[in-house]
Design brief:
383 residues, alpha+beta, Alpha-Beta Plaits, 3 domains, four-stranded antiparallel sheet, ACT-like_dom_sf, ACT domain-containing protein ACR, ACR1-12
Length: 383
């Protein structure tokens, strides 16, 4: 099984190194298939802040780009996102390099306006085939060093843990005879956990020789015997500490916090911009996004938290429904909270007699976002 995963992940490598020509995320085995045509993608990573995705989506709308899919993760105050776009005027990828260059510059100004962030936006054209956005998100966050703020449960980076703790724990030992590192990962079990772990080992140029995977109740145990590619030398203590932090980060990136808002709506130009604007204006921060299109409909999920740390007002569901014109499903999610059954979720469909929810307008959030846009030399975003 590990050999199969390794074959799939190593498609990004060429001559023993990660291929820079394939870094755009065009790897085999992706979760979304784009057949027979090129696609245009925007990649971004940097410091997370409330309203950032809304501002990026607003710029795309202003420049006649339509969003066909978007995936974003946040972790340790960092964010990485990939947005697939098409030409809103004539359907298809954007082929004009000048137009792509101008869009990249404008998006870069939005990202850099906050804290002088270095260049973190890239517009790229992906070839026809499969696009694995989650695989690419791991690469973006690893390159952005989101792992540097990771800590074990006691607040250190040793990987040790207390009895009964259900957090993420990593230990790295040695097998002197074979020149292996022995890596043990203990965490809560969840979908795609093995994929996330092997991704970071691949990005760090480690080869897996043996592995043992088990799961008991809600806890998963992973053990790997690894060696750095092309070397039989045991890594130094600093390299082992970095590996520990990177594995913790890989497990934690996909954890979802806050209120989950699922939407199903007719896809249209500006839909992502409108939904994220409503969330921003009500003082909400987006912790994770996964949205795409199926049969002309936009289908996806937003995980939102209140910027002030309070519980998310459930009335936000009605405001989102008004923007999408479709159905909205909500469910509270937490990395340490069991998933609620569908019977505990609230489903709201479009009706004529639904009472309009009262908005919690965040003037400070909106004013700050406008000042940042002005500092980048832009006019205001059209809502």
């Amino acid at each position: 099984m590990v050999d199969g995963l390794w074959t799939e992940l190593c498609v990004t490598r060429s001559n023993g190194k990660i291929s820079r020509d394939r870094e755009g995320g065009n790897e085999k085995g992706g979760e979304e298939e784009v057949v027979g045509r090129e696609i245009t993608a925007m990649e971004m990573s940097g410091v997370d802040r409330a309203g950032l995705l809304s501002e990026l989506a607003g710029v795309l709308v202003e420049q006649d780009f339509v969003v066909t899919a978007a995936t974003a993760w946040t972790h340790n105050d960092r964010v990485a996102c990939i947005i697939l776009v098409e030409d809103a005027i004539k359907a298809g990828p954007i082929s004009d390099p000048k137009r792509l260059g101008l869009m990249e510059e404008q998006l870069e100004n939005v990202v850099a306006a906050h804290r002088g962030e270095r260049k973190r936006v890239r517009m790229t054209r992906l070839g026809a085939g499969n696009t694995h956005r989650e695989r690419r998100l791991h690469q973006l966050m690893y390159a952005d060093r989101d792992y540097e703020s990771c800590r074990a449960c006691e607040g250190d980076s040793s990987g040790e843990h207390k009895k009964g703790c259900d957090g993420t724990h990593v230990s790295v030992g040695k097998c002197e005879d074979k020149g292996y590192l022995v890596v043990n990962v203990r965490s809560r079990d969840r979908p795609k956990l093995l994929f996330d772990t092997v991704c970071v080992l691949t990005d760090m140029q480690y080869v897996v020789f043996h592995a043992a995977i088990s799961s008991k109740r809600s806890i998963a145990h992973q053990e790997y015997y690894i060696r750095q590619m092309g070397s039989s030398v045991i890594p130094s203590e600093s390299e082992k500490q970095k590996l520990t932090l990177c594995l913790i980060a890989a497990v934690e990136r996909r954890l979802s916090h806050g209120l989950r808002v699922d939407i199903v709506s007719e896809n249209r130009v500006g839909l992502l911009s409108n939904v994220t604007r409503v969330l921003r204006e009500n003082g909400l921060s987006i912790s994770r996004v996964e949205i795409g299109t199926k049969g002309g409909k936009a289908v996806g999920s937003f995980f939102v938290t209140d910027c002030s740390g309070e519980e998310v007002n459930p009335n936000i569901v009605e405001l989102v429904r008004q923007e999408t014109g479709g159905s909205v499903v909500t469910d509270h999610k937490s990395p340490h909270r069991p998933h609620k059954s569908s019977s505990s979720s609230s489903v709201i469909h479009q009706t004529n007699d639904t009472e309009e929810a009262k908005q919690k307008f965040s003037l400070g959030s909106l004013l700050w976002s406008r000042l940042e846009r002005l500092s980048g030399g832009f006019g205001p975003i059209r809502s």
